[in-house]
């Protein structure tokens, strides 16, 4: 791990900058012939930057599906900007919006302020997947009100529970709805973890964040289905006027380097064993423990669990950190405020269970001994509190 005596089990928050990406960025910057000119310039140094940007887009496109073209990609500064660019664009082009209750706050927090005739929150089922029967009812209601188009924003995989949205069932509901549905999927947690065929999904837009796959924070990505435009929110030079400022070439190159290392099959093969080892150990520690979404199809690196016997937050993250294990209470963007997880509450968790929950998310560097050490540390904390079941 990057720091001695710290076992990092929070890869859903950020994968950090991988050693491979760091080394290739250093080599890239050491190239004495490299001059980081403005890519908008028409002279040869500027055109060289344009070529490098296109090569970066090609490298990224290959990880999203065989039919993905570099021209289908829009580069932005983060997953948050990617989500909000898509949702704000949809707001201007559809007559209603539905945003899922399990969405990252970057998307969910926009719902209340959207200026559309119809807007609604799609609830989660207790298992952590979306209530697709309720979605069908919402779309029927919108159609009966005379609406012709709806924007729909959902996770591909939930960042807290790892639960995957069943895209085949979702596609069927959209197809049978009798209304135009423009779908946005937040793909931040699936990139590099499952084999992707983005054009094969029902989505019109899929968004990604580069720091989830080993590139530095500060780069996000939007895939848009050919023919699905994005309404410009700013007047600028990037992406056909979609945003202002000079392009982040280093972020693009780092993302390309990270993409060259992606191995979804290998990732699953390694992390599914760690996930199983962790969850079996948790049940041994506390047979009454709640593992959220465990009956649903999940990404293989994520486990979210709650202790039911505590009435207030028991500073789990801080105590585990002191024992050398970095885990999460939920979304990193909300981590500075200890509040019950909105996602778990939406799944029917009590406030107490939602407060006393921990997310463990594995990455390529983790191993079985870390899982055993984490379980030992957690068991010790429970014994110290004197409330183990």
Topology:
Elements: E1 7-8, H1 19-30, H2 44-61, E2 73-76, H3 79-91, E3 96-100, H4 105-108, E4 118-122, H5 132-144, E5 149-155, H6 167-176, E6 180-186, E7 205-209, E8 220-224, H7 249-260, H8 264-285, E9 290-291, E10 302-306, H9 316-322, E11 325-326, H10 342-346, H11 351-355, E12 357-361, H12 368-385
Parallel strand pairs: 1-11, 3-4, 3-5, 5-6, 6-7
Antiparallel strand pairs: 2-8, 7-8, 9-10, 10-12
3D architecture notes:
This protein is α/β, with parallel strands linked by helices and 389 residues long. The chain has two domains: 7-16 and 263-385, Aspartate Aminotransferase, domain 1, CATH 3.90.1150; 19-260, Aspartate Aminotransferase, domain 2, CATH 3.40.640. Helix content is 36%, strand content 14%. The protein is built from twelve helices and twelve strands. A seven-stranded mixed sheet has the order 2-8-7-6-5-3-4, sandwiched between helices. A three-stranded antiparallel sheet has the order 9-10-12. Strand 3 (96-100), helix 4 and strand 4 (118-122) form a beta-alpha-beta unit. The protein is globular.
């Amino acid at each position: 791990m990057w720091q001695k005596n710290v076992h990092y089990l929070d890869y859903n928050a950020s994968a950090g900058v991988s050693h491979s990406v760091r080394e290739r960025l250093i080599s890239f910057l050491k190239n004495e012939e490299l001059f980081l000119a403005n890519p908008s310039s028409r002279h040869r140094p500027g055109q060289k930057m344009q070529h490098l940007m296109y090569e970066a887009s090609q490298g990224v496109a290959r990880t999203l599906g065989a039919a993905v073209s570099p021209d289908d990609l829009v580069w932005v500064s983060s997953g948050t900007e990617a989500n909000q660019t898509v949702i704000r664009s949809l707001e201007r082009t559809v007559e209603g919006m539905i945003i899922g209750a399990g969405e990252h706050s970057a998307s969910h927090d926009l719902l209340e302020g959207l200026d559309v005739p119809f807007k609604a929150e799609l609830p989660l089922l207790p298992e952590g997947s979306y209530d697709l029967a309720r979605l069908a009812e919402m779309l029927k209601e919108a159609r009966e009100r005379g609406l012709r188009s709806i924007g729909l924003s959902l996770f591909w995989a939930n960042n807290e529970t790892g639960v995957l949205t069943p895209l085949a069932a979702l596609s069927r509901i959209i197809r049978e709805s009798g209304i135009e549905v423009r779908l946005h999927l937040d793909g931040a947690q699936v990139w590099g973890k499952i084999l992707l065929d983005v054009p094969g999904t029902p989505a019109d837009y899929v968004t990604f964040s580069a720091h989830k796959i080993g590139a530095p924070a500060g780069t996000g990505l939007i895939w848009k289905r050919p023919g699905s435009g994005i309404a410009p929110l700013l007047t600028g030079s990037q992406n056909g006027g979609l945003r202002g400022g000079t392009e982040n070439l280093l972020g693009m190159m780092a993302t390309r380097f990270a993409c060259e290392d992606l191995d979804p099959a290998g990732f699953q093969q390694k992390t599914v064993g760690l996930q199983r080892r962790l969850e079996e150990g948790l049940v041994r520690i506390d047979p009454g423990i709640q593992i959220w979404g465990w009956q649903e199809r999940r990404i293989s690196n994520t486990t979210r669990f709650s202790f039911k016997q505590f009435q207030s937050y028991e500073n789990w993250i801080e105590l585990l950190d002191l024992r050398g294990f970095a885990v999460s209470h939920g979304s990193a963007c909300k981590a500075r405020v200890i509040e019950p997880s909105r996602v778990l509450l939406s799944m029917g968790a009590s406030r107490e269970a939602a407060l006393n929950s921990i997310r463990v998310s594995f990455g390529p560097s983790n191993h079985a001994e870390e899982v055993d050490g984490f379980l030992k540390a957690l068991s010790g904390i429970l014994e110290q509190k004197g409330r183990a079941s």
